[in-house]
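Standup notes, structure subgroup. Blocker cleared on the S-adenosylmethionine input:
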Amino acid sequence: MTASRKLAVFRLPPLPTIGEIIRLYNLRAEKQLSQNFLLDMRLTDKIVRQAGGLSNAHVCEVGPGPGGITRSILSAGAADLLVVEKDTRFIPGLQLLAEAAPGKVRIVHGDILTYKMERGFPQKLARKWDDEPPDVHIIGNLPFSVSTPLIIKWLENISNRDGPFVYGRTRLTLTFQKEVAEESAALSAPVRSAGRRRTFLACWVFCNFKHCFSFPPIIAFLLQSEVDVGVVHFTPLVQPQIGQPFKLVEKVVRNVFQFRRKHCRRGIEMLFPEARRLELSEQMLRTADVDPTLRPTELSIPHFRNLSDAYSKLCSDNPGLLAYDFRDELRKKRRSRCIKEEEEELKLK
Ligand code: SAM
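Run returned:
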């Protein structure tokens, strides 16, 4: 067993170090793009190990930059590595790496937020949703400003079983700001975790979510980053904890968290048009059997499940409700108030 695992691990030929690649191609980290590079191969190996065994796996690395994590993925024995990098400056360094691992690395110069991952790997890798996860992994150390919108997009993909999840329950290993990763892990505690974040609440609904470890920037980065980094591993759940579509769950969670310090009733009211706000929010809370005086941070996933189910029922009874956004109503009100004031002014002239 050990021998076969050893055989599968790939040994890259001697290459310039990541530091040398950075100097060779003049890859200055752009602070405004939050670019920080991992230089310590022991650390990149440790991050990659959190994905599980990669021997002969198909991997997509998001934002490879100068290629530290990329090397660790190859050394772990991945058969096929697709890298998606937005910044053109990194492409020559990645090509050097691709030449060192013939037939293993595919380079896409593009934006991971728009890249169509459903075309990234052969369809034959696909597994049924309730089977074991496929041998397809996503790994990445992206700027935090990208990883949050990305995980929201991927949660929706999980809910729809499209994007990277056409292959089944594709596993993700990503970095986040340490405090976000650690607080989010605390979501598994039943209630009252003050620091819970709404994005990660949605993660818990759709994924098995593990905070693997954290590290301070000082040991890892070329450019001094202010924040510690947490490595998080996600496996989509066979059965999400809430049986409603991501968009609906996200809308309920987002509105409830609108007023973090107020009673949850306040945020729930915002799901409904002003004319029927009190009536429908009371009906939703009653059907969900949720105490309206609980704070958003005191609500557990079963509370959100009941709220989402109750809201879904109201949406089927009231066509157009799902598309309602209180901000549109506010904007319209403001606009008509401005028009009225202008008309009054014209009358006075
Ligand atoms: N993974 C490398 C490492 O750990 O050393 C680089 C990390 S750096 C924090 C983030 C990398 O993601 C940069 O190479 C950056 O150009 C790339 N990146 C940022 N936004 C991206 C996007 N939307 N799509 C693809 N790559 C992106």
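Discussed briefly. Confidence is low (pLDDT under 50) at residues 1-8, 188-196.
Next: hand off to the docking folks.
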